[in-house]
Amino acid sequence: MFRSKVLFILGAGSSQEVKLPTGEELIEMLVNKLTFKFEGYPKDPINLGETDREVYLTIKNNFRQDLGQYLNAAKRLSLTLPNSISIDNALHAHRHDKYMETCGKLGIVDCILKKENESAINCKNFDDEKIDYLKLGKLGFPVFLSFLRRTSQNRRSISFLKM
User: Are 31 and 78 in contact (CB under 8 A)?
Assistant: First the structure.
């Protein structure tokens, strides 16, 4: 039984059927999220280009004294990720760089939460007709969903799992 909020991250292959990003798609999303392009000076979120502002604002508001180091780390990570085996591999290779690690984790959480909100397994979007249960069975989802159902304290939040 879980006593606090828990975030499960399943392997990339298992996520595709329910409209969550694959590992490659997550890398692409993360690179875009960490590529801060400023259209003007001073560095201000109003002048940010196409990039997502949330990660930038989180860094700016929580790590203001080291903002330059975090922005530099985000840039280095966005250049490293496309040539990495995986996001985990890239973060592990730079595990002693707290700035890169923090930027990577902030970006991952933001990407996954946004995609989860759009996914077929989100309680708000759940549509039984859109999910191919045969494919899910081959990916091991029934075992995982059964585990969630048995261990959840808030059964209403996952009531759709009672298939």
Answer: yes
